[in-house]
Amino acid sequence: MWIANSFGKINLGLHVLERLPTGYHSIETGFCFIEWSDRFEVTESSNYKLTMSEESIPTGEENLITKAYNAFEQYIGLKKHYAFNVIKNIPAGAGLGGGSSNAALTLRILNDLEDTGLTADELIDLSRTLGADIPFFIKGEPGIGTGLGQDIEPLDIQPKAWIVCIWPGFESSTPEAYQNCVPNPDPDFSIKGVLLEEDLDQWQYLLVNDLEAPVIARHELIGNIKDQLIDFGASYAAMSGSGSTVFGIFEQDFVAINAYESFHKLGFSANLTRPGFQPDQGIYLKE
Q1: N or C: the chain end with fewer CB closer than 10 Å?
Q2: Mean pLDDT of the 184-211 span
Q3: Structural domains of the chain in order of their starting residue, each with its CATH number
Q4: Catalytic residue status for 133
Q5: Over the stretch 19-32, which tens digit does the pLDDT of each residue have?
């Protein structure tokens, strides 16, 4: 059995720059990692099999793990087949990239176990039709995403502060978030510029997620959680991606822990990420 962890992400700002004729959108966003993760257990098998700890999640052709497995087999080929057991912790439809992270790890696992020797860029090319966030997870480094979000410029933008993520308990529709957003091709500040040049205490005034307002208009609780995180002492709080997760960035550990524990006691799913967190990208053989 091989084991590996599939980590989530948050978006540090998100500019929707243009609505494209294809129905997709040109964006700018900052990607960084959080410690919220799913666990993969993989064994050799006579044929492909996927089981999920969360039984409500479909495991067929619509699942990104299955899509990634089939894409790898179609374009590269497989000498063996594998069974995947996934212990889900990252909430679905939460703006944390759980499905994309799962797909990226699937490609990396197959590349490793099959000894295919594909580079990260080759795996990214293989993933282009699967999902916009997948290249970020394949690269495994924080950075700025542009274009459809698939063009990643690795940059050291992982916050040197505590990140508290709160899931409000419901999914948010990505298509609805983009449909209700008005693109702005000329924002006042670039996300890259803010993240590289401005101190954390300035982010609340300069760093914007264009999807946040239309989502909060439909889900008031998201705005309430954001306000509560700021009241708890977050230097910056925002919705991640198209929602529904809200995160706060805290400079002091005891303030972050207090916020995390307070939401946890209220029954919210919550996660606490350490300053400068770097995900373990290893794929390990379990003895």
Answers
A1: C
A2: 97
A3: 2-155 (3.30.230.10), 162-273 (3.30.70.890)
A4: yes
A5: 999 888 999 999 99
